[in-house]
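re the bet — no i am not wrong, look at it urself. input seq straight from the record:
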Amino acid sequence: MADPGSDDITETVTADGVAMVQLLGPQDRLLRMVEGAHPDVDVHVRGNEITLRGSAEAVRAARVLVDELLHMTKAGHALGEADVQSSARMLRDETGPRPSEVMGEAILSSRGKTIRPKTVGQKEYVDAIDENTIVFGIGPAGTGKTYLAMAKAVQALQRREVERIILTRPAVEAGERLGFLPGTLTDKIDPYLRPLYDALNEMMDPELVPKLMATGTIEVAPLAYMRGRTLNNSFVVLDEAQNTTPEQMKMFLTRLGFGTKMVVTGDITQVDLPQGASGLRLVTRVLERIDDIHFSRLSSDDVVRHSLVGRIVDAYSEYDERRMAARHERDEAAEFANRAERRTAARPAGPRDRMPKRGRS
């Protein structure tokens, strides 16, 4: 909290009762997050008024955040804790878009829940899906890359822009380990596809999903089932693409047919392949400059889960960077030693080398 001083100013924000209730949140949780984003400002609520007290610069920044949140509540945006965090982060960048611009347009509304981008990176990712035929969403856990892609797929189906949705992901352990599981092949691969089913049931009427799957309008299948097919008039989402081999990635991308849009999602820091290169890592180098293919790279700033998730992602990224730097130093030292050893071995024998050793008389 700020200490009262001669340079402190006070500003009051007035809102109607409904907007104020939405802004405060349960147990004033959202208001506490506003305080956390601006610790140098005292925030007090009385009736329909919010009073901000602190230094002029700090109060102005807090006022911008409160006004932006009120604007979104009046526009029908149901605020959550992640929205407040994202809004505060966006407003720190004065050259970037306003939170209301990023979160303003809903992708999908279903069962009382509205799905929309919550960060600048997510907004750019969603826009890229609209503007390109193939989009790669690459980023850490919690950035919404798969969830937003599936929301865009459902939106395209509802708008009749495509005739069907195809959701696929690799079953990494599709060899011996699956063979020991009970049941049919479908039963064995179901655990790998379960996250896609769960997301579908959140976005659509759970009673409608089985009917659409029965008619082939929605298909959820392992990546191996894509071989030999041409996918026309479809919205195709490949999830967990970091676990594809280069051959699988090439196979999948060449399934593209007319009127089809593809979104490939993955996290290149979480490769579970037992050996060999990741197809997602390779494709970023092979297709980087091809028109109508876009690579959206999300970061810890785009994590919309618990705030701790973003810090976990950053901590692991720093650890990986240190480990790679240490490995690079070791490789350079080993290479230097090898070159020195090769030079010594290749040096021709000189006169001193041919001089016989003197023995004791």
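see?? The mean pLDDT is 81. told u. also The CA atoms of residues 285 and 359 lie 65 Å apart. so pay up
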